[in-house]
Amino acid sequence: MKRVVFLIALLAIAPSFIAHSATRTQESTVYVCSMHPEVQSSSPGSCPKCKMKLIVQAPPKKEPQSAEAYTCAMHPEIRNPAPGKCSKCGMTLVAANPGVPGEFDLQMQATPAAVKPDEKVKLRFVISDPNTGKQVKQFAIMHDKLFHLFIVSQDLSQFQHIHPMLESDGSFTIETVLPKPGHYKVYSDIYPIEGTPQVLQRDISTVGYKSDLHASVPHLSADTVLTKTLDGIKIELKLDPAEPIAGKPMTLKYHLTDEKTGAPLRMLKPYLGAWGHTLVLSEDQTEYVHSHPAEAIPEDVDRTKLRGGPDVTFEGLLPRPDVYKIWTQFLHGDTLTTVSFTIKAVQLH
Fold this sequence. Notes:
With 349 residues, the chain is mainly beta. Among the domains are: 105-205, Immunoglobulins (Immunoglobulin-like, Sandwich); 227-345, Immunoglobulin-like, CATH 2.60.40. The protein has one helix at 2-26; strands spanning 31-32, 40-41, 55-56, 70-71, 79-80, 94-95, 105-111, 120-128, 148-153, 159-162, 165-166, 172-177, 183-190, 198-205, 227-230, 233-240, 249-258, 268-269, 277-282, 288-291, 311-317, 322-332, 335-345.
């Protein structure tokens, strides 16, 4: 797996290096007059105005390369806004200047086109370069997968986190079921190697669904008790700060115990390269946050022998005042547990 990621990272960096090298070879020497700087020549000689010998013009000072983000050559999923070290391997981060800085184009096709609730549907995804229209076939791995797909119903009652497979033609496909009639949001979390990590959202509705989409947006209330019991696990959530402030960093602190004994749960297994995964959506699904635990899983170890818990921490930021729904997933034994909470972010006073 590591060798694949390393190859992808090299492919992402190489075009930038080639472009800079070509620019240097095309630069030519310019000769100027020290008394008449407007006099310039591509070859040695004398100034036609004062007859002084032309001198080589000093090359312009090159500003340090800037970047909107920095990444790790070994772990391209690492993206930091400032220079530093990779949190996974300690390597110095390099400037990430993608060839395509914006959003890529995404085509989603459903088979059958008329999607029936509670019946299988095959989804096919094709990603294209927005500038050339050419299909993209190379992607970086993020948390063990090339493609993370989230499907959430308009009313936020249904949630799926699944992983389409890469086909030989470069498309991604997966079969799933939309369990109830309604409108669904489909979030494609991908990293084209010529671009940046991004989430592309599309919509799909089941046959016969006629409701007004605006009217179907839920009106949620924040949970008053942040404790739930699922799959034999008591899951307690503590917010820091207790009242999240929009636009300010916040922390989700989970504490897991055995439902029957109350003993701390220390048998979590790594799931997709992390101790858990969290998706946060605003009530109207215009704000999207995908977060991973602050407790990193060590590299170069046998993950099958690793165990975690009872505490798992996620860091995030809720962009604006609103009610948000959180889904967090933990792997315990062979059971993937998905727990949800509803919280509110308030305006800074």
